[in-house]
Request: fold
Amino acid sequence: MNPFLFAIIKEGHRIAKELRYDYSILIGHETYYPRFGYVPAKAFGITASFEVNDKNFMAYSLSGTDKMPNGMLVYPKEFGI
Reply:
């Protein structure tokens, strides 16, 4: 694993925790992001408002808990999703 990329992701998690976010959610490669602790978002009850493969729509619990937010992620219209 590239230590620089690992450090960037961990720093992003640190900042998000500091800002009091509970989760980091992404669309990414199903074999790359699990090494950072990401799991399919549906494991947390998180769905997408757009078509995406479950294995590529992932979430990471920043608080370390498995509380279920049961919500839908909606991107701003600027993303075109």
